[in-house]
Design brief:
Layout (H helix, E strand, L loop, with lengths): L1 H21 L5 H8 L5 H36 L11 H14 L8 H23 L6 H25 L4 H9 L7 H20 L1 H9 L1 H6 L4 H23 L5 H13 L3 H26 L16 H19 L6
Helix pairs in contact: 1-13, 3-8, 3-9, 3-11, 3-12, 3-13, 4-5, 4-6, 4-7, 4-11, 5-6, 5-11, 8-11, 12-13, 13-14
């Protein structure tokens, strides 16, 4: 396990280095000069005020989404449960978009966006809990109701767009997910939130491992199933809302990264939860680096200076492809 964590940490360092030199505006040589204390004021500003906080936010958001996804899949015992289909991500997006449309928040007011997204994410989870009713302890019913809640919240987001068509750009950025324009304020808001709820998730690793084995085994071991599942879902909601508030809805990160983490680190969540955080950070950071590298490619018919691939579009495309591979290889997989 130590070697696996070391290898992933080294991969994270490589992805971080690539992301710092990948974007337009500065060549890798200029970045190296700035790191060594040289470079002009503009280059230092781009590196330390734009690229570095963007890098840290991508790492933190990836870790949050991965841990939230592993919590949901373990608590609900559903390999296809993720923040995208449990009402949390659509609710957070709806909260951020609605606050932006009302003029209460915007990209220049990160704190207001965080509060709006967290409120929306909690509202989405509360709606799911309300609709599940007495059957909210049943994993299958909770997952089905989560899909319905996500669809309703997505429709409400579309209604906001119809009422305020001028917010199209904001809606698209929140729905797709992007790390562009992230500054130090975003990072300072994200890391305490991620650290707090990440620590809470790790403290729930034992109960989550029992829930992953089934309610009967958990009850036999003396676990109060419903309170443990409720605490786990609350933790997943908080982590997802914080990530969405920072970068928007990054597709498939919270759905597929947990599978990679369990495959690498095993089913013991005391190990696989921090492993999932590291894998999620590597995945989002690597995807963001690839998205920035794509902006350097000449695209026929488009202004090369304006072409930018959102990281959420890349994770959605790659995640959908990987999901098809997983489903085709293990069609009858269950926990």
């Amino acid at each position: 396990m130590t070697r696996r964590f070391t290898a992933l940490a080294a991969l994270a360092v490589v992805c971080a280095g690539v992301e710092l030199v990948a974007g337009r505006g500065m060549s890798p040589g200029v970045v190296w000069d700035v790191v060594n204390g040289g470079g002009d004021a503009t280059a230092r500003h781009i590196l330390f005020q734009l690229r570095l906080p963007r890098l840290l936010v991508s790492l933190g958001a990836g870790a949050c989404l991965a841990v939230a996804g592993l919590i949901l899949q373990s608590a609900l015992r559903n390999p296809l449960a993720g923040p995208e289909v449990t009402g949390v991500t659509p609710g957070a997006v709806l909260g951020a978009v609605t606050a932006t449309a009302l003029g209460l928040a915007g990209w220049d007011s990160p704190l207001a966006v965080v509060l709006a997204a967290c409120t929306g994410g909690c509202a989405g989870a509360a709606l799911l809990w309300l609709l599940a009713g007495r059957g909210r302890g049943d994993p299958a019913q909770t997952a089905v109701h989560g899909v319905l809640v996500s669809a309703v919240l997505g429709g409400l987001t579309a209604m906001v767009l119809l009422v305020e068509p001028g917010e199209l750009g904001s809606v698209v950025q929140w729905l797709v997910g992007t790390t562009e324009g992230r500054v130090w304020q975003h990072w300072h808001l994200l890391w305490p939130w991620a650290l707090l709820w990440g620590a809470g998730a790790w403290l729930l690793a034992g109960p989550l491992t029992l829930l992953r084995c089934g309610d009967d085994i958990a009850l036999t071991a003396g676990l109060s199933v419903r309170p443990a599942r409720s605490l786990a879902l609350l933790c997943a909601v908080a982590l997802t809302a914080g990530a969405v508030a920072a970068v928007g809805a990054l597709g498939f990160v919270g759905l597929l990264v947990p599978h990679l983490a369990v495959a690498v680190f095993g089913a013991d969540l005391r190990v696989s939860l921090p492993g999932a955080a590291l894998v999620g950070a590597v995945v989002v950071c690597g995807a963001d680096a690839a998205a920035q590298l794509s902006s350097r490619l000449p695209v026929p018919g488009l202004d090369a200076g304006r072409f930018t691939l959102p990281v959420g579009a890349l994770t959605a495309c790659l995640g959908a492809a990987l999901l098809l591979v997983v489903v085709r290889r293990t069609p009858s997989r269950s926990f």
